[in-house]
């Protein structure tokens, strides 16, 4: 008999805070500045990272205080996922909300937190600091994920 893992056995609402946090693959894409096309609503990611994002580990350097430091930092919660349409297609929260499995490179599957970086799915080494880019130049830094 196969063992069911908690991220498949439970709904997102049933996860403990620790289980919820462990769904994050650590890609860092949430921490990139995004631009929205005013005409059609399309959202574009830029390579411009929040100044609290560690560019190598893709971890927030002040995670517990992030909302006080960056008031528009979005805190993902099970009830808010439907309203957040800019999450990347590879996001575990988005995948699980749709009933889809996690990718093989996800740390919960691979058992290795660095697998997201080795797979090329994180922003590690691909971003610039927001203090180095004028906000009016963000569109010059739009990135398209393959």
Description:
With 146 residues, this protein is α+β, with helices and mostly antiparallel strands. A 3-stranded mixed β-sheet has the order 1-2-3, with no helix packed on it. It is globular. It starts with 5 loop residues before the first helix and ends in a 17-residue tail after the last strand. The model has no long low-confidence stretch (mean pLDDT 91).
Tell me the span between the first and last alpha carbons: 37 Å
Spatially, the strands of the biggest sheet line up as 1-2-3
Structure summary, number of beta strands:
3
Proportion of beta-strand residues = 5-15%
Q: Which structural class should the secondary elements be placed in?
A: alpha+beta
Number of domains: 1
Low-pLDDT regions: none
Shape descriptor reads globular
Rg, rounded, reads: 16 Å
* Residue-averaged pLDDT: 91
Major sheet details: 3 strands, mixed
Estimate percent helicity. 10-25%
Number of helices: 6
State the order of secondary-structure elements, H for helix, E for strand: HHEEHHHHE
Task: Identify the notable features of this structure and list them briefly.
alpha+beta, 146 residues, single chain, globular
Write the layout of secondary structure elements.
Blueprint: H1 6-9, H2 17-22, E1 32-36, E2 43-49, H3 66-69, H4 92-97, H5 107-110, H6 115-118, E3 128-129
Parallel strand pairs: 2-3
Antiparallel strand pairs: 1-2
């Amino acid at each position: 008999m196969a063992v069911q893992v908690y991220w498949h056995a439970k709904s997102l609402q049933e996860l403990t805070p620790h289980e919820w946090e462990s769904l994050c693959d650590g890609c860092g894409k949430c921490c990139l500045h995004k631009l929205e096309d005013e005409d059609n609503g399309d959202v574009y990611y830029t390579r411009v990272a929040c100044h609290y994002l560690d560019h190598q580990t893709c971890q927030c350097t002040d995670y517990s205080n992030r909302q006080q430091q960056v008031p528009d930092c979005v805190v993902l919660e099970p009830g808010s996922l439907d309203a957040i349409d800019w999450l990347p297609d590879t996001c575990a929260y988005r995948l699980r909300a749709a009933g889809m499995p996690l990718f093989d490179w996800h740390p919960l599957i691979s058992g290795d937190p660095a697998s997201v970086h080795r797979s090329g799915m994180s922003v590690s080494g691909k971003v610039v600091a927001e203090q180095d880019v004028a906000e009016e130049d963000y569109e010059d830094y739009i990135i398209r994920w393959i």
